[in-house]
């Protein structure tokens, strides 16, 4: 990482009136990223200058998965274009430019600047320009109130109104850094009223809008991803390796580097090659001309034999043409297909040009496994490096190390653009470690998910649009769609019924994985996700491992799902109580009180953030957990089971698989008694079996008597 020297090229002759001390005023040739860290691989000669109408920000973007980011000032009306450039330049470079999160030191990230520039600022400036404004100092309080009326008259969506109002406030809070001509009035816009009060409506996009992936879609996607990893990967790796070897031996690439053969050596190689084809019953590799006639693929044969492309002009070429072997309609690799699916090969013989596609599908399958089963953010996964997973021999845990970007700040609260290595690694299951190992065999890149599995040569003087080498969010989303398409086509060809169904919530975006995993862990802790991997196991690894560190962020997603789950449960429990459901057990009174009180306290409450959900979950009224044949009204101080988490942790939950019969937290509803009755019926048959071993008979008889006593006590209480 380097920082351009804070000098100005072509400094203007005069400075604007009222320029505050400490504010640098840019000239036409001043670097756009003058006071920002830039990547080591950025070309200084190609850095954007202030006079440019399109500012390239990519040299200051360190996330390898980030898309190309530029600011196009041509979309700003000409009367305000220069003012907008001066303002944005200060946001980028002034060390004291403030953010909108009430931080006195933190500077706005370049990515954030690009988002609000296109999403809201341009619309605000277009409206100002339409009112004849040419300098920000011309904006009056009356004009700002008129702007609110205009937003209403144009029926602008509520979340867009919030954002455009925010841009006016952002411009106002920077006034101490700007000259007179760029300052809004001294008094706060709209008399300092909150946006919610101004609009008399709550911002809808504050709620969690990330949709979880449908259960059947996610199950099938993960099942096929694991199948690629465990069953197909060796075939794909072998085919991909052969493909790359043949590419490297293309005649045009080997020119001047090929070993000179002795006289007659090439003929011997050709004879052996033809014998191999005959022995396998293969045809000569071929293609179809435009008129449909077959043609020998001489370039491929030259790669296989490591000879010149002109082989067809030699006597060795005549041997091939006169071999009597038919010409095939495709070019197949020698790699055999060994894996089976329903007793038959999972794929027909692999053509040369399909190996890259299969390699990309394998990489995508590994992404599904790593991203979904780790719970890491998409950007964190796409920036993982080779060697990031290791086994801690002491604890037996698989640890995954990497960078995090969200919340990575220096001592002054400024975003660290290149990210920071996590202090606490992610704790993952072994399947994730296996996926990482496959990725490390798939390519030579230092990144696990490069944008290309095989590097390409860059044309001198032509830099890529973005500097990062990792796959972008957009590319990985496209890969997921292609993966599902391939699977569904294969299922149709083989008559299988386990295709990946379309998700009702839309495209399977990788950003939806975390929310989906939280839902599965909370709703189906005992459900098999695929190949005997249990969410309960993932829960233990994640919530008691890396996710115990708040910076991981997964606890917020899990808390939000936990909140929804508990509120649904409380609503149902209240309906049951009102319908006359009986409750017994030592915690019966506490159960009834909590259900009624929680309904009054939380019914209709809206949570603005996932973090808010995590805070609310600590309320004792919500500590009701339904199990198999029992209900836990949790009091961590008296619970007899092994708690998940510490007693003072708002995320603490009971281990309902380890429920103790004498625990004072137990309550039993009519629903629980119905489950116990089913168990009583099963045990009655076992005890009645005269052939049952004595030890088993005595054990089951004791359990039967205990369960009957519970049912009798419950029924007796219901009759009182």
Give the gist of this structure.
The chain is α+β, with helices and mostly antiparallel strands and 720 residues long. The chain has helices at residues 78-93, 110-130, 141-153, 158-173, 195-199, 215-248, 251-254, 265-280, 298-305, 315-321, 355-374, 378-382, 430-442, 473-494, 513-523, 535-543, 554-578, 588-602, 610-616, 670-688, 694-719, and strands spanning 54-56, 70-72, 286-288, 294-296, 340-341, 344-345, 389-392, 397-400, 403-404, 420-421, 426-428, 528-530, 533-534, 583-584, 624-626, 631-633, 666-669.
Describe the overall structure.
There is one protein chain. Strands 14-17-16-15 form a four-stranded antiparallel β-sheet. The chain has a three-stranded antiparallel β-sheet with strand order 7-8-11. Strands 1-2 form a two-stranded antiparallel ribbon. The protein folds into four domains: 44-205, no CATH class; 244-345, no CATH class; 355-546, hpI Integrase, Chain A; 567-719, no CATH class. It has helices at 78-93, 110-130, 141-153, 158-173, 195-199, 215-248, 251-254, 265-280, 298-305, 315-321, 355-374, 378-382, 430-442, 473-494, 513-523, 535-543, 554-578, 588-602, 610-616, 670-688, 694-719; strands at residues 54-56, 70-72, 286-288, 294-296, 340-341, 344-345, 389-392, 397-400, 403-404, 420-421, 426-428, 528-530, 533-534, 583-584, 624-626, 631-633, 666-669. Mean pLDDT is 82; it is low at 1-12, 458-462 and 526-552. It is of the alpha+beta class and 720 residues long. The protein is flat. Helices cover 43% and strands 7% of the residues.
């Amino acid at each position: 990482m380097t920082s351009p020297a804070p000098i100005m090229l072509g400094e203007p002759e005069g400075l604007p009136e009222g320029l505050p001390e400490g504010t640098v005023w840019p000239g036409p040739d001043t670097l756009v990223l003058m006071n920002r860290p830039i990547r080591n691989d950025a070309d200084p000669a190609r850095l954007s200058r202030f006079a440019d109408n399109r500012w390239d920000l990519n040299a200051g973007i360190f996330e390898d998965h980030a898309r190309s980011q530029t600011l196009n000032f041509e979309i700003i009306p000409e009367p305000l274009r220069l003012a907008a450039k001066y303002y944005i330049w200060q946001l980028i470079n002034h060390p004291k430019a403030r953010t909108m999160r009430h931080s006195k030191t933190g500077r706005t990230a370049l990515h954030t600047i690009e988002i609000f520039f296109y999403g809201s600022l341009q619309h605000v400036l277009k409206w100002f320009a339409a009112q004849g404004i040419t300098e920000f100092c011309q904006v009056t309080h009356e004009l700002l109130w008129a702007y609110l009326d205009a937003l209403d008259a144009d029926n602008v969506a509520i979340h867009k109104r919030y954002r455009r109002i925010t841009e006016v406030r952002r411009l106002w809070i920077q006034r101490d850094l700007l000259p007179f001509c760029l300052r809004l009035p001294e008094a706060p816009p709209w008399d300092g009223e909150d946006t919610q009060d101004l609009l008399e409506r709550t911002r809808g996009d504050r709620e969690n809008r990330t949709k979880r992936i449908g259960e059947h879609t996610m199950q099938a996607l993960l099942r096929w991803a694991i199948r690629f990893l465990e069953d197909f990967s060796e075939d794909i790796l072998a085919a991909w390796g052969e493909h790359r070897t043949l590419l490297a031996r293309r005649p045009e690439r080997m020119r001047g580097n090929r070993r000179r053969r002795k006289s007659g050596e090439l003929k011997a190689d050709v004879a052996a090659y033809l014998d191999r084809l005959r022995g396998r019953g293969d045809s000569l590799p071929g293609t179809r001309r435009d008129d449909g006639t077959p043609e020998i693929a001489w370039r491929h044969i030259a790669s296989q034999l490591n000879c010149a492309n002109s082989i067809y002009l030699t006597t060795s070429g005549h041997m091939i043409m006169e071999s009597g072997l038919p010409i095939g309609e495709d070019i197949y690799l020698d790699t055999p297909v060994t894996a089976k699916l329903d007793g038959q090969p999972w794929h027909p013989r692999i053509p040369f040009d399909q190996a890259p596609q299969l390699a990309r599908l394998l990489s995508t399958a590994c992404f599904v496994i790593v991203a979904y089963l780790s719970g890491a953010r998409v950007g964190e996964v796409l920036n993982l490096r080779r060697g990031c997973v290791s086994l801690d021999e002491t604890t037996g845990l698989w640890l995954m190390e990497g960078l995090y970007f969200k919340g990575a700040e220096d001592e002054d609260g400024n975003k660290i653009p290149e990210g920071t290595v996590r202090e606490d690694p992610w704790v993952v299951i072994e399947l994730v470690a296996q996926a990482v190992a496959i990725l490390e065999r798939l390519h030579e890149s230092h990144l696990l998910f490069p944008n290309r599995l095989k590097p390409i040569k860059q044309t001198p003087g032509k830099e890529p649009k973005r500097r990062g080498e990792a796959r972008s969010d957009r590319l990985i989303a496209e890969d997921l769609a292609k993966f599902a398409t391939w699977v569904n086509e294969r299922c149709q060809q083989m008559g299988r019924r386990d295709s990946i169904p379309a998700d009702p919530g839309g495209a399977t975006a990788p950003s939806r994985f975390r929310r989906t995993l939280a839902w599965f862990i909370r709703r189906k802790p005992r459900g098999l996700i695929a190949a005997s991997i249990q969410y309960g196991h993932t829960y233990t690894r994640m919530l008691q491992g890396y996710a115990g560190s708040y910076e991981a962020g997964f606890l917020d997603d899990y808390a939000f799902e936990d909140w929804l789950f508990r509120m649904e449960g409380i609503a149902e429990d209240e309906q049951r109580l009102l319908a006359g459901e009986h409750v017994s057990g030592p915690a019966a009174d506490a159960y009834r009180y909590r259900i009624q009180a929680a309904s009054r306290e939380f019914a209709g409450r809206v949570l603005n953030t996932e973090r808010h959900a995590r805070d609310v979950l600590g309320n004792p009224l919500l500590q009701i957990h339904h199990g198999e044949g029992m209900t836990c009204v949790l009091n961590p101080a008296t619970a007899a089971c092994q708690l998940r988490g510490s007693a003072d942790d708002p995320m603490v939950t009971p281990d309902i698989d380890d429920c103790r019969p004498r625990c004072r937290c137990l309550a039993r509803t009519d629903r629980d008694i119905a489950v116990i009755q089913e168990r009583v019926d099963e045990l009655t048959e076992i005890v009645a079996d005269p052939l049952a071993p004595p030890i088993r008979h005595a054990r089951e008889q004791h359990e039967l008597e205990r369960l009957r006593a519970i049912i009798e006590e419950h029924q007796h209480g219901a009759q009182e």
